[in-house]
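User: Could you walk me through two proteins back to back? I'd like the raw sequence and the structure tokens for each, with a short line separating them so I can tell where one ends and the next begins.

Assistant: Of course. Protein one, sequence then structure:
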Amino acid sequence: MSDRAARREKLRQRMQQDAATRDQGTGKKPMFDMSDYEDVSWFKAKAGKNEIDILPFEVTTKNDPKGTAIGDDNYKLEYWRHKQVGPTDAYVLCLKETFGKPCPICEARKQMLDAGADWKDEEVKALAPSRRCLYNVIDLNNTEKGVQLFEQSHHKFEKPLFGAAEYKDPAFICFADIEEGYTVTFKGTEETFNKNKYIEPSVFDFEPREPYEEDIYNDVYPLDAMLIIPTYEEVQSLFLGVDSEEKEEKEEPKKETTRTARKSKVAPAERTEPKPGREAPARGSRRRQAEPEPEPEEDIDILTCPHKDDVGLIIGVDWDNSDVCGECPDEMYSKCENLYKDLEKMKQEQIAAEKDKEVEEKEEKPARATRRRPAKRS
């Protein structure tokens, strides 16, 4: 009876989870625990004008990836995820980029790069994580749904959103404040990538709105508490297509062997001696300071953009200047951004030098003109 009761409870929980995530349109293992909530609704941007209020939530755990203290407010949950993981094409949290912890998928990708694979290879690109943001929003065109969850790419939504906020007010618009915030508006354009249609957000703006009452905090979702943080072994099981319970019960010796093998494979990444030909790029030095496991610079051709043949982009020069930029692997996008900033800095220095030169020439010209004018008048 106890075994039957346990099976019944698992079935109840499974059905409850399916009910909570039915709007997500997927039966894959979820990244967020919504078992405590009924009728969770997901906001989907539409073609044309979208109007949403982004609302803050109180952080209640130590799981906020940005390190927000318990009791403080945050307006988003920013995390990194791997997609199409293993034979089930699952989504799973990237432990390395989100929390700085070992991630078996990132380790496998690094091993491929260290073995000579090109970062543009499809197998390598498939293992790269993407940066995502999750928000609490109210759709002003459908307020009956109340607070909804809204997930978007960091590069396609968060970056242009903040760019618009800083352009609108150099002192910065705090659009998520419940009392002094603003309604966020943006244009949704239907685009197609790899035969898949999606809505591309653009033309962000802000409109005044009425303040929310304090009790709105009772309606928003505690995003940090809902994030499912898997263990290293759980990510590895998804990646390899091995059932975690089966692996634990039936393959204990093999599990130990796998752990030992992981340590031996990780060790080369910790060597201090760089690979030949890696010392030149300046961007590489900044990346090595920021991350304990740097990507091999020799695998990135700084003169070649992955979209060069399609739309004629030049890496570093056309950074974030096209819709396809958002489809770049995140590490390539960051390298392109760094190079773009370096080039812009050089341009500004050159412009400043030319202006200084013009000022010097102008200071000399009046003196020569003053000497000539009296001669013409005499």
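----
Protein two, same layout:
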Amino acid sequence: MSPVASPRNPRPGSALPLDGTDLAILGELSADGRLTNAALAARVGIAESTCIHRVRALRESGVIEGFHAEINLTALGRPLQAVISVRLGSHNRTHVLSFHAALTAVPGVITVFHVAGEDDYLLHVAVRSPEALRDLVLEHITTHPAVRHTETHLVFEVFSGVGVLPAPSHP
């Protein structure tokens, strides 16, 4: 059954109507989520009261889901990153939901992508060492009864693309 559409949960493929000011606000916040309302309003060229109402509306509508810190994984003692592709042998709902639940408890898993194609999942992980990566795969992933195959790809470098928002207009 599909989730019910609401302002916080629009139908898949649908987008909320956003104007240029909303997009500018989103671009500035995605570049620096710690901007004060006054600084954000000045950068976007609107009144502070308008800015705070717009940001609140973007949060309430679900366009802004939260604010996050970008963590330096090497400084955290997790210099080795990998993407692990996982193929399931069974796609029955119980196995899939069980695998989802198991993934949320695996230390070192940063992001889980449930994907279409030959593989069913891509897991972005960060660990302390090659041995820790081996242990993560062997002790937490391949032991699940629904998993049929894994393939581990080491990450040499991570960088961001241009994204979907306009670049901030300030110098």
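The mean pLDDT is 89.

Let me know if you want the two compared in more detail.
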